[in-house]
Amino acid sequence: MFRRRVVNRSMTTEEISRIDKIIDKYEGEEGILIQLLLDIQQELNWIPKEVAERISQRLNIPQSQIYRVASFYTAMSLTPRGRHLVSVCMGTACHIRGSPRLLDRITDILKIQPRETSPDRRFTLNTVNCLGCCALGPVMVVDGKYHGKLAPAEAEEVLKNYD
Length: 163
Prior knowledge:
CATH superfamily of the largest domain: Glutaredoxin
Oligomer: single chain
Strand order of the largest sheet: 2-3-1-4-5
Distance between the termini: 29 Å
Largest sheet: 5 strands, mixed
CATH architecture of the largest domain: 3-Layer(aba) Sandwich
Strand content: 5-15%
Number of helices: 7
Number of domains: 2
């Protein structure tokens, strides 16, 4: 069972200002919701409820539409993500080459399970069905950088390189 973390905090004045600048870029334009949400995701690493409400009010877009788009695309998250996104391939080739042991080691190091974010928001851990680089298995990707033929003992050294 996955635990869902609820974040109950108000946005800071600085965050509101940054979000308003992003919304301002798209005011009056049609068909901008996906790009707007991607820009906010890049700025905050997630799309908080307060932001969805603000977009809805400022651009007259129904919240249901905002949530439908934000929950459909994996590039967007409605829960806080860490500064660094860690993905472990669990496809057949990687599985045979040891990805379950690699994943176990990573969960031990980060003290989180897949689909969770570390309390310090440094890392978010995910698993994927296939990364398409089967010859490099097992594979871990951190912020788009592939680390192949990775032994579980090497995972900690890789993760140390990310602040």
